[in-house]
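The data layer described in this paper is built around a simple, fixed record for each protein. Such a record has a labelled line for the sequence and another for the backbone structure tokens. For reference, a complete record is included directly beneath this paragraph.
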Amino acid sequence: MVTVERAQTGLRMERNLLKVLKGLAEYLDMSLGDLVEGIALHAFEGKAPFSVETIEKIEQLKAVYGMTLTAADAHRLAEK
């Protein structure tokens, strides 16, 4: 186990994306913060953070919450 010091932060993100992330964290029985940390650490090393089974669950959650954003949208989002 690696001991770390965490900092509280406030992140703003698209609401349906947040719903999917919260649902996924619940499904994986982990906190939202732990999920985001894991995604970031995998991305920093160019590794895929999810198994095929988890990706299938993500697709289900995206359908439930009406999330239509893709990676292509990442740097083109504008607020209402």
The chain has one domain: 15-72.
